[in-house]
Specification:
The protein is α/β, with parallel strands linked by helices. The chain has 9 helices and 11 strands. The mean pLDDT is about 95.
């Protein structure tokens, strides 16, 4: 699919601003196409010093990665595990993890570290934000609660959510959902589901493939599309690009462009629909 950035020059959209919390690269991020096009700028947080340094070297300027633990601005305990991507400010729920194939084996506690957290709203390097990607093994709600100013500015959120208590005392999907809907977002979709089989069964000889039990997912939330008229023309433009390029939500992108046309007396929605139907 072509990019909606084709419709807008760099003068119209200097950058789409991305906040990546828990930026360690387990896989290619959903926003990579915008980075490759030179049309997005990342501020990321990765508390692992070596990984943070690697990300800064990999992406270079204008992107910036900081070795901070996002949170409520207070002291906390970081639970280090045998796989860096499963470390958390919440203690792994080992009795539960052991019931499933290949979970406890990847979330084995190895050490505890006293750390200091920083509130997202107090980090001056962030600036304006359009898209938030967050994956911090259970601390997402705590971070959102201390990032209300940033949430006011954000257009799209990709957040990991859990449906069972993988970490002791962590908030569940329902808690995150209630909070984000109360702060101006609509739920959009899930990006697949993480699943495992209860031991001793193995599904199709794959220890990472479950049967029916959903354990986690990445949930997508979008700025309330009932209130598009409250957004500026620049925000509507960025929102449409995110909906088209990252989410593949072409109907939502058209809805946003219609709101943009009403605000700016343009014809982007008509042009978009024409090109979309030809494609």
């Amino acid at each position: 699919m072509w990019s909606l950035l084709d419709f807008f020059s760099k003068v119209q959209i200097p950058y789409i601003n991305i906040l990546d919390i828990g930026a360690a690269l387990g896989e290619e991020p959903s926003y990579q196409s915008l980075i490759d096009a030179g049309r997005a700028r990342i501020v990321g947080f990765e508390p692992n010093d070596k990984e943070c340094e690697r990300l800064n070297e990999l992406y270079g300027k204008p992107h910036l990665f900081l070795p901070f633990f996002a949170g409520n601005g207070q002291s906390a305990i970081f639970h280090e595990t045998n796989w860096s991507l499963t470390g958390s400010l919440y203690e792994p729920n080992t009795p539960l993890l052991q019931k499933f194939q290949n979970l406890a084996e990847l979330t084995t506690p190895v050490a505890k570290h006293n750390i200091e957290t920083k509130r997202i709203d107090e980090i001056t390097e962030i600036g304006e934000v359009d898209f938030i990607k967050i994956d911090v093994q259970g601390s997402e709600l705590n971070i959102f609660e201390n990032a209300k100013n940033i949430l006011t500015d954000a257009l799209v959120i990709q957040t990991e959510v859990e449906f069972v208590e993988l970490y002791k005392g962590q908030p569940m999907f329902a808690d995150v959902d209630i909070f984000l809907r109360a702060h101006g977002f609509q739920f959009c979709t899930f990006l697949g589901f993480g699943s495992r089989a209860f031991k001793p069964l193995i599904n199709n000889e794959n220890i990472n493939q479950g049967f029916k039990q959903a354990l986690w997912s990445d949930a997508i939330y979008v700025k309330d599309w009932m209130l598009l008229e409250e957004l500026s023309a620049l925000k509507l433009t960025r929102y449409a690009v995110l909906a088209h390029d990252i989410l593949g939500a072409y109907d939502l992108a058209h809805l946003i462009l219609t709101a943009l046309d009403k605000k700016t007396n343009t014809h982007y929605a008509e042009l978009y629909l024409s090109r979309l139907t030809k494609a």
